[in-house]
Amino acid sequence: MQTIDDRRVQFGEFAGPLAHGASFFDWQLISTQEIAAAFDYSFAEILGDDGIPYAPVVVSTSVDRYPRIGETISVETVPRHVGDSSVELVYEINDSDGERLATARMTHVTIGPEGAALELPEDVKAAFADASVDRDPSVGPHDGTDTGEGLASFSSSFEIRSPHIEGAELAYFEEYPRFADVVLERHLETRDTTLDDLRGDKEPYRIRDWRWEFKAPVLFGTTLRVDCDVLEVTDETIRIAHELSSDGRTNIEGITEYGCFDRSGAPVAFDEAMLEPFRA
Predict the structure, then answer these.
(1) What gap in Å lies between CA 240 and CA 255, rounded to an integer?
(2) Domains in the chain: ranges and CATH
(3) What percent of the chain shows pLDDT beyond 70?
(4) Is the pLDDT score of 257 beyond 90?
């Protein structure tokens, strides 16, 4: 199903000359709403019953290229697997020439007012099952041998306030990679450098491959802590273990691999100066 069709990437979706990494999360969320409505189990219906619609449980994504200012993107979204209370969707994001920009896999559940996952209505489950496709894209971070020896760790915290929340009074899905980016930039400052010092004709520290598992929602009014442990540093990858927590419990944990891209959006190698802050 075409859930976004020839959408011009808008000014607020950019960081510098390329789309912000959080925009991929936002396009996935828009696409989820479109497919939910098409299968007659809409966000509005679930929110009207005080539920949390299509909450992500596991998100895996790989970015091939970042779109530039003036480009248009399209997203095709299809169900891959459906269970009693969950549905896994595959998202393929393409440019105007049909070239792949990114691929994502997300498993969703709907959370009821009591906090438990709700079973899908039988007709909705049957419709998802009938539409399911046999696609098994390999996305997300690679399987590395992560020692972290001689590498950095850093953390920071945020108050979850009104600009960060969506209709269910929870931290907005798109905000999580923004929080991770802010922590990374604060870490650069502790190493006496900034993103502007390092950019030049390259755009470093763009999320490229990630797998995040969502353990619990982040509530309005809480303090969210983001802990980052660097696991690997190479010319192509900065691999970081992320844990986002609040009130003593883990909300999100996963692995994020950051890449470096040129101003056309294509992947390139990091400069040595870009890697140095992530060594202990």
Answers:
(1) 6
(2) 1-139 (3.10.129.10), 141-280 (3.10.129.10)
(3) 95
(4) yes
